[in-house]
Amino acid sequence: MGNTDCFKKNYGNLSKLYIVxxxxxxxxxxxxxxxxxxxxxxxxxxENGADIESLISSESYSxxxxxxxxxxxxxxxxxxxxxxxLMSEFDCLMEIMSYPYARMLxxxxxxxxxxxxxxxxESVRMNGLLIQDDNQTVAHVAGELKVNAVADDNGLxxxxxxxxxxxxxxxxxxxxxxxxxxxxxxxxxxPKKFDRVLQNALQDxxxxxxxxxxxxxxxxxxxxxxxxxxxxxxxxKSKYSPTGGGPIELEYMPPCMKAILAQAHNGINLSHSARFxxxxxxxxxxxxxxxxxxxxxESPDFDESKSAYQIKHITGELTGTDGYTPPxxxxxxxxGICYNEDNLCKSEKMNHPLTYYRIKSGTGWKKDDKKx
Length: 372
Ligand code: SF4
Prior knowledge:
Elements: H1 3-10, H2 29-34, H3 39-47, H4 52-57, H5 62-78, H6 89-109, H7 112-130, H8 135-144, E1 149-152, E2 155-159, H9 160-167, E3 181-183, E4 186-189, H10 191-209, H11 219-240, H12 255-265, H13 272-284, H14 289-296, H15 304-315, H16 329-334, H17 343-346, H18 353-361
Antiparallel strand pairs: 1-2, 2-4, 3-4
Helix pairs in contact: 5-6, 5-7, 5-11, 6-11, 7-10, 14-15
The chain binds iron/sulfur cluster.
């Protein structure tokens, strides 16, 4: 009995599912399951009779839905979507279909932080798989991500413009273009570095695609899983919030922020860096633009329209982003706004005003990758 016959026998209710190897590519169903964002993955799904309506409503796709939910929960819990070894074509198809389902869940919650975290987790998963794959597959994935790359006997190379575009956020010195080997406009990269750049490319792509515009009729099918994701997201946010999800307590504020707040209340004109530090710090603690504006309104020289614009810019409300990260202690010192250092400030582990708040409030020594 061939693979296809065996598959049909084992999964009679999904008898339209059979393996498809696309012409002109090496992408089989197992590869598509590893990289479900590939165009070939959706073609394979379609060729196997899978469609979105069945995915959200049919019992036949409950495995894919559970796995889709797991993808999103993995993103929140571990910053990386887990990988299961897939033994059968059925497993592979469910894995492929779990990807659009996860994206539908994320889109339904429609939270910028979740979008970013999910995009990161999918791209970290891909990175872990690429490193085990051959150069041709890696180059194929690069092509899907619109990264100009070459894979041949000499290894992997990436056009310098794409290298710059996707590696600029990696701060380490050895990633600077000047420290790489460039030949005919292509940067010669080790597989590890090449895959790391592709990770950023996939993260950017997923982030740019979310949220998806879903038909209203989908909401009732997705409701239960969306609720699970929303609950997990709220729990995650309060766990990693410097306030532990509670209200902001003045007594836990670091001396620099207390001093800047006092200046604002006393009508002292704040420097740009002080205003930026205070607003971004309060936003990181969970205050929204309106709450911060209300706080500034107590200042004698309060100018509502000017302040509102500045605050909304810093909190990201104007730009549709998460806003700016509050400055570290070293930056505060450079700008001369590290006021009244106390013993905790002078301790070795102190490097960030948010860390100060966490320690004082007892919410722990946690690194929140969203805000710091
Ligand atoms: S050491 Fe850091 S937390 Fe303490 S006052 Fe200076 S900037 Fe603020």
